[in-house]
Amino acid sequence: MMRRNQTIYVTLDPFLSPRGTLLHHFDQFLAGLGEQQFPCICLTGLTRAQLDEPRRRLGHNDPFIGENGCGVYLPEDYFHLKGSNTVRLGRFTCIPVAKPQPAAAEALEDLASDLAIEAVSLRNLSTRELSQNTGVRGNQAEQIRMRDFDELFFFAGAKESDVTKFAAEADLRGLTLQNLGAFWSLSCGANYAKCIRELGRLYDRALRYHAFRVGIAVGLPDAHLGASDLTRRALEASCDRTLFLSERQPAGQEAVRKAEDNDDEFAEPADDTTSAVNVIPKSRAQNEFPLHSPDLWDSLLETILQRR
User: Fold this and answer.
1) What domain range includes position 126?
2) pTM of this structure
């Protein structure tokens, strides 16, 4: 039985290669959470079909939020009490936040046609074209098409102004458009924050008290984000605390440790190479961790256990 006094929400995709290989020793973190009996809820753009093998390999039996915030997927009998708005999808009970397919596919077709902008859905590619565009082959490529909610696509020959116009019109129509890098996701209502709140309420109801929510994202805090990064913004908005794993050494970390010894509210970087700012709040530096640190997961678990 999980000791669900803390629930951990993690952006999964930075820790999986396109072929499903684990990166950054993420399995060590999952093992540590398992020892502490903390559920780990993964936020991902992948489908339930794509996640089957990685979840089995990792022994991950907790819920996940799939298809870029379109729905919460609950393993069978995970909660005795479920919300009223649920649907059965394969082996999962799903709390849908976005409208199910073919809503997104039809919305993409209408939007592209109305604006005369060519948007190529991955669903419509041949198997060979799909493999060429995604870098994966066979069944792994086909699993990308097996989407319950959102539609993945790319722009063909569109100018930056076309993409801007497309995004503006999608917003006017109440659609959720996300830039995933190589591809775009279009859905009728995806919302990571709403998914987190829906799942959080289930944990709270099961426990009869608030299960502290910790978000973990790869990147920098909200002030450094572009408007397209909805995942990290949702974690900051919906979790009690959000921890960030950055590609660089967190600014002024050594100075913060020294400041803590003196109980100072702010920390000053040792030199100008450490940070572009002169004064860094301890609270920010305490929430940032270097992604490539050899003791990353131990430090992260220690911080989660401190719950402050």
Assistant:
1) 103-187
2) 0.85
